[in-house]
């Protein structure tokens, strides 16, 4: 399970680099931060239950943040 957090770190790094190349600096910085957190957590060797609980917490937080941003912060498409 620790290896999967390092894999998540790799993919968030790839997405962050693509966002940086596309001049989306805020998104790139967000994904670089996520990369650092995932790689750090990947090397801490927690139990599998702890990794699963952390991943669920991450998913709930990210989905709530995405929903808040799209509902309250983005303008109407008209």
TrEMBL record:
Highest taxon of source: Bacteria
Alphabetical UniProt keywords: Membrane, Transmembrane, Transmembrane helix
Record-linked Pfam families: DUF2626
TM annotation in the entry: 29-46, 53-72
Protein name (database record): DUF2626 domain-containing protein
The species this protein was found in: Paenibacillus gansuensis
